[in-house]
Amino acid sequence: MLVRRVIFLTGSDMNDVRPNANDVFNKVPQVTLIFWIVKICATTVGETAADVLSTTFHLGLVVTSYIMAALLILALIAQFRTSRYVPAVYWTVVVFISVVGTLISDNLVDNLGVSLVTTTIIFTVALIVVFAWWYRSERTLSVHTIYTKRREAFYWGAILFTFSLGTSGGDLLSEKLALGYAVALGIFAAGIALVYVLYRLHAIGGVLAFWLAYILTRPLGASAGDLLTQAPADGGFGIGRLVSTGVILLIIVALVWYMSVQENEHPQSAVAVDAQ
Fold this sequence. Notes:
By secondary structure, this protein is mainly alpha-helical. It is built from eight helices and three strands, in the order E-E-H-H-H-H-H-H-H-H-E. The protein has one domain (6-177, 243-273).
């Protein structure tokens, strides 16, 4: 099958869509403000939940990693079996992949003694390889056309490495370089703001802007999680991992419930694919 044209129907055109067996749908959500809010919350939970399980519940990094990897696999199976974007399934994967991405970085640093500089370089190279492989295979890195299993696999592979990279990069700035959690948070927030300005000025395209912002929101969320949970003596607010994780999870659940209601009332448009 040769894909010649991709059309996204919006607005009044939605009423004219009559899905049938040949329709395909984008498997990921539209990029809106609520998308970024939930994504940042998920990245923050990735930082705090990993600490809750491994430290507060005394499971350790290795056991926690096995448990969360198994849950991630189950969530991914459910995600790949869906035929379209389902908010509850999609965001469950994001939360689990956030925790697993954090644990990968923490295991390399804490258990294997790999430096944060090295892990940051490793995950940067791994992410570049995924993007290069994805683009060579599909000729696009757009998240608006994730309607095949192969594209979805590339998408989730890239996201996993953005989380691991964000964890290492965030820890590198806030801990290794001793800038502190608040300063690191400000740096990453400024980076996201810069990406947005460049995008609005048409200095960079939408695809590049999305992935740069996606990468930067990970260390932003990680820095926010550390700022909330670390003791005041260490530069944090000392709220506690369990409380912080619970509150943020409630926010995620509420927002995902809202998105589910919106999706049921106004489902995403079919991706019309012409084949020859």
